[in-house]
Every structure is written in structure tokens, then in C-alpha cells.
Amino acid sequence: MPALAVQKMECAAGQEGDGGWQHPTKAVGEHPAVILGEVDLGQESIQQPGYFLRMRTVTVEPGGVIPYHSHGKRPGIFFMKHGQIKIYVDGCKMPLVLNEGDSVVEDHRIKHFARNETDDVAILLVADIHQ
User: Fold this and answer.
1) Residue 8 and residue 1: Cα distance in Å, rounded?
2) Strand ranges (DSSP E) for 1-131?
3) What local confidence, expressed as pLDDT, does residue 5 receive?
4) What is the arithmetic mean of pLDDT over 1-26?
5) What is the mean pLDDT of the chain?
6) Which helix (H) or strand (E) covers residue 83, if one does?
């Protein structure tokens, strides 16, 4: 089995610029996240009260949308467990296309929205730090 690589959520070379997209503000076809586990970081050796590390699944139906949001205080990494999703990142002319098996880092600079433009459900496994 080949090693999995985690990529940063950034524009491909030469694709920097305004994509001109409308930022959707409402979720469409996005199921409530299923929390798989959570760690209170205030109780751990790093002692960060009020912060939690969690793992969850996010499911998006065909034609569904994850609305525009920021990762300013919620860095994370996600793995495309099933299907495909397009991520529309501020500052990129083209969306990032993520397929089953792809992983991406979402850091404090990221503002984006996502669409499932396929005929199949998209399932993401997400690990993030949140308050």
C-alpha cells in the first residue's frame, strides 16, 4: 500500500487569484457531523483549557454544499474517506479537487467552501482543534 501524503490547502502553481465565486452561507445536503471522539486539551500535558481535539465524520450528499467558513481558530486535517469534493479556497482561481484517499491540512489562513458536484455521497474524516 503506498504511503498517504497530506497536502496543504493551497492553490496549484499559477492558479493564484480571485476565483470570482459567490460564497454560499447555508449548508445544503450536509449531514450533522458525527463525533467519533474528543480530547479535552485542558486535561492533557499541554494544558490548553477550553480547547478540544476531536475527530468526526462529515457527510455531504450529491449536489451538497459546506458553506463558506474560516479556520482562523480551528486548524485541522481531513481525509477523503469516500467520493470526491471540490474545495473553493479564497485566493485560488480554480477549486481543489479532492478524491477518495486524499488528505489536506486546513490552517489559520484558510477561508473556503466546498461542493459535492458528483452523483455520489462524499464522506470526510476530520480531525481538528476547536473551542
Assistant:
1) 22
2) 6-8, 28-30, 34-40, 52-70, 76-82, 84-89, 96-99, 103-106, 111-115, 122-130
3) 62
4) 77
5) 91
6) none
What's the whole-number mean pLDDT along residues 95-118? 93
Q: What domains lie within the chain, and their CATH numbers?
A: 6-130 (2.60.120.10)
Which amino acid, one-letter code, is at 21?
A: W
C-alpha cell at 122: 462524499
**What are the residues facing 58 on neighbouring strands?**
124
Short-list 105, 112, 113, CA closest to 78: 105
> What pLDDT sits at residue 4?
58
CA-wise closest residue to 106 among 85, 121, 120, 122: 85
Burial of 124 (0-12, 13-18, 19+ CB in 10 A): buried
6: its cell numbers? 497530506
